[in-house]
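A.,

Following up on our hallway conversation. Structure tokens first:
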């Protein structure tokens, strides 16, 4: 898929300013005829198609960006979406936000509707399932699109991908627990067969192999309910497990409350590490250790990358990972002390 030519491309080809191209498109009498001819010739050569609805938005100093999120109920994704929206707004763009609720059919439906509204670009944190219905439609529409947080379409040359460095995050978490004296560490949460779950487990598996500790994975939905249930399962069926890395903070928060319900002391005889470091991690008791992905900063970076793609023709690299860090709190301290 070749990128759609923009007025920046037309201006460069014609040897005029971007504002001159805009005036020609608006049929302004302020542009001299010779420059008008140069712009029209450049448009013909590049195959530039005038999108009047988008032009109307631009004339009001507003562009339109589609933002499609797989689960806005999760504070991690909500914070990301808010950060992207605010960063786009600061640059004069409006955002169409859609929640797909982890349903690929809904995703295909909302993406189709967003495309019909003439968006300039799409940012999508995709749902798993029938991905082709979504991404093939985007490819046909020839709209610059970034996959973020999850990569479900392998065509990164068409749909560049950006996410935090999940592998390093789970490695930091596992090393922290092993160095702190954990004898058996479980990985809790994440659905089997999903790439994002495998990435968030990968560093854990590496550290367990290096430490000579048998890994144990308890798969499940990224929800508080599953984490709450996991507390009883681990305590009843796997009493030798004394620490857990969770797929997400929601799972970890559920595990924390589940342990409280059954009287297991977190931070003393059982240690928990979450993943994402949402705001609530620092507010619960005991405060939750978590892998910080700086999701607000990540959202700002994504917005900037997409706008550079649109405005300056700076296509993103095909795959980009941002650094993470482990924020240590009471939920992972004091084991065996």
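Then the amino acids I'd put at each of the 337 positions:
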């Amino acid at each position: 898929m070749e990128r759609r030519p923009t007025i920046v491309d037309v201006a460069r080809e014609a040897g005029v300013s971007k504002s001159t191209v805009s005036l020609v498109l608006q049929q302004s009498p302020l542009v001299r005829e010779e420059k008008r001819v140069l712009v029209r010739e450049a448009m013909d050569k590049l195959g530039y198609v005038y999108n009047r609805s988008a032009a109307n938005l631009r004339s009001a100093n507003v562009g339109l960006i589609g933002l499609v999120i797989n689960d806005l109920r999760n504070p991690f994704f909500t914070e990301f979406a808010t950060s992207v929206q605010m960063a786009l707004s600061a640059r004069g763009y409006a955002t169409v936000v859609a929640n797909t609720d982890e349903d690929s059919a809904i995703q295909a439906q909302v993406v189709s509707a967003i495309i019909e509204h003439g968006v300039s670009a799409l940012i999508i944190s995709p749902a798993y399932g029938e991905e082709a219905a979504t991404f093939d439609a985007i490819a046909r529409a020839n709209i610059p699109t970034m996959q973020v947080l999850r990569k479900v379409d392998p065509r990164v040359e068409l749909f560049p991908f950006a996410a935090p460095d999940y592998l390093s995050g789970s490695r930091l978490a596992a090393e922290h627990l092993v160095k702190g004296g954990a004898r058996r560490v479980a990985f809790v949460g994440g659905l089997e067969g999903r790439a994002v779950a495998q990435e968030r487990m990968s560093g854990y598996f590496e550290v367990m192999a290096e430490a000579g500790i048998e890994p144990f994975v308890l798969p499940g939905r990224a929800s508080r309910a599953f984490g709450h249930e996991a507390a009883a399962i681990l305590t009843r069926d796997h009493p030798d497990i004394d620490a857990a890395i969770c797929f997400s903070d929601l799972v970890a928060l559920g595990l924390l409350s589940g342990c409280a319900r059954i009287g297991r002391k977190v931070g003393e005889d059982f240690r928990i590490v979450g993943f994402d470091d949402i705001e609530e991690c620092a507010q619960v008791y005991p405060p939750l250790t978590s892998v910080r992905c700086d999701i607000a900063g990540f959202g700002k970076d994504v917005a900037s990358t997409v706008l550079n793609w649109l405005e300056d023709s700076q296509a993103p690299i095909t795959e980009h990972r941002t650094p993470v860090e482990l924020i240590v709190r009471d939920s992972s301290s004091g084991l065996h002390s």
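Residues 148 and 162 are 5 Å apart (CA to CA). Curious whether your intuition agrees with the design.

B.
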